Automatic annotation (TrEMBL):
Residues 16-208 form the NADP-dependent oxidoreductase domain. Coiled coil: none annotated. This is Aldo/keto reductase. PANTHER family: D-THREO-ALDOSE 1-DEHYDROGENASE, NADP-DEPENDENT OXIDOREDUCTASE DOMAIN-CONTAINING PROTEIN.
């Protein structure tokens, strides 16, 4: 599988990152088999978080077995020092490892969160301390929120090394600064910050719970995904063509094999087809929740 430099981190990541939340829905044996399948396709970048149920525990056995082959990203939703320090140690314990390769501030959505994170006694202090102690190697950020907030975070966190954000034809077709993730991509490229794309396989928001109960959703995703091999391949090719360093696989294990196949077979996508996809998606629901732009 193709690899790309993850910004200036020194890591060469496969163009597909395994979204390890998918392991949460499986028993341990199934989780082990899925990790083996991912590794068999050459994927070397995995992403997990303590909020993903038992995903850290399910990933642990194979992560330890193949530790040298996996660049691991983990995350925290904690915004203050004490909580973040505890979560780093908890994740290390649950994963059964000594060092997390990339530790990310998870789900930044609001300006006041950024104020807390970057203030004295904020989560960033704990993350930097953990880096000094050898518990983590690189510092990142993830956000589904306003691109302008991500750009502000880049300004304020001078040791930020990666950013994870949504990018797909639906989002690319939306007008307005609140959807301008391309500006984030350009800024990251200019500054040597690694980029990870999420929601590449999002079709749109799920119907309201009045129309479709959460328990009845056919996929364990926060959004309704595309789910045929042809469309999955097209979505992967689109995301990879946006010069993202790596694209994160969707959260439902039923989709992982199709995404692995798409990433393994990818031959790129020309600009004309990219523009056509954006036009086709222009009137679709954005899978980036509206409330996150407020």
């Amino acid at each position: 599988m193709e690899t790309r430099a993850l910004g200036d981190t020194g890591q060469e990541s496969t163009v597909l990152t395994f979204g390890s939340i998918a392991l949460n829905w499986l028993e341990q044996e199934g989780a082990n088999q899925l990790v083996e399948l991912v590794l068999d396709h050459g994927v070397n970048h995995f992403d997990v978080a303590p909020t993903y149920g038992d995903a850290e525990l399910k990933l642990g056995p194979k992560l330890r077995q193949y530790r040298d082959d996996i660049f691991l990203g983990c995350k925290t939703q904690e915004r203050e020092y004490e909580g973040a320090a505890r979560k780093i140690d908890r994740s290390l314990d649950r994963l059964g490892i000594d060092t997390i390769d990339l530790y990310q501030i998870h789900g930044l959505e609001y300006e006041d969160e950024l104020d807390t994170i970057t203030a004295d006694g904020g989560a960033l202090d704990a993350i930097r301390e953990a880096k000094d102690d050898g518990k983590i190697d690189h510092i990142g950020l993830t956000s589904h929120g306003n691109p302008e907030l991500i750009l502000d975070a880049i300004d304020r966190i001078d040791d930020l090394e990666t950013v994870m954000f949504p990018l797909n034809p639906v989002v690319a077709g939306k007008d307005g600064d609140e959807y301008d993730y391309e500006a984030v991509l350009e800024r990251c490229e200019a500054e040597g910050i690694g980029t990870l794309g999420i929601k590449a396989f999002a079709k749109g928001s799920w119907p309201s719970t009045d129309e479709l109960a959460e328990a009845d959703r056919p996929y364990a995703n926060w959004y309704e995904p595309v789910d045929t091999p042809e469309v999955i391949r097209e979505r992967f090719d689109f995301a990879a063509a946006q010069s993202l360093d790596t694209v994160v696989s969707p959260g439902d294990p039923k989709l992982v094999a199709m995404v692995l196949d798409a990433a393994s077979r990818s031959t790129g996508m020309g600009e004309a087809r990219q523009r056509a996809l954006i036009e086709e998606a222009r009137h679709n629901d954005s899978p980036v929740p509206e409330q996150l732009h407020h």
